[in-house]
Amino acid sequence: MKPILKVTLTEPIYDSLKDMIRSKELQPGEKIVQEKIAEMLGVSRTPLMKALQKLEHENFLISIPHKGMYVRKVSLSEMIDLYYCRESIECMATRLTTLHADSGQRHQLKAIFDPFIDTSEAIDVHSYQKGDEAFHDTLIAYCQNPMLQKMSIMSQVQPQVYHIGLLRSPKETLQEHQLIIDAILAKDAAKAEEGMRIHIQKSRDVLIQHAKDQGEIN
What we know:
The chain is mainly α. It has two domains: 10-71, Winged helix-like DNA-binding domain superfamily/Winged helix DNA-binding domain (Arc Repressor Mutant, subunit A, Orthogonal Bundle), CATH 1.10.10.10; 76-213, GntR ligand-binding domain-like (Four Helix Bundle (Hemerythrin (Met), subunit A), Up-down Bundle). The chain has ten helices and two strands. The chain has helices spanning 10-22, 34-41, 45-57, 76-100, 103-113, 125-141, 146-155, 157-164, 170-185, 189-213; strands spanning 61-64, 68-71. The protein has a two-stranded antiparallel sheet. The longest helix has 25 residues, at 76-100. The N and C termini lie far apart (67 Å).
């Protein structure tokens, strides 16, 4: 007999709630009413609570004593700080992955963006965002540096950055991703690292301009 696989509802609930936060169906600052969410998703309170705790750990939600759990508001200045941290982690991860990844891993990275290349159709933003996240996560996974990977997990920089969503259009960033991938395939660590640095800096510049426009920074 085949063993019975234990199925957990926590992950699909987590994914649904994260999508609701990103799409602003759950607004920044909005209180999480567990009974309402459980009824909406058709789930029980136990797996819902586990999903909410995971989202709180990743800084999507915040618990306020005696008040409840709320969708976390992230200021532009905090987003900018996150992107400085992201640059430090991901540029080194890109360099190390270029140096250490095997041929199969390099082509797995390339395959992530293949569906969006040379297509006559408009790129689906949701699908592209999923691919974007997978690409950046995979770079860290393949860097073969446990300390850097641990630093990324403990800091929760990646989930918080993904919370922000795409800052620039797929049309603009796809070319940047391709340049990074080409450098990785060519085993040019310096070029791959610099490509990632430029890629992240351009997105951070968008945040800085928004902050200036809203008077948060000079």
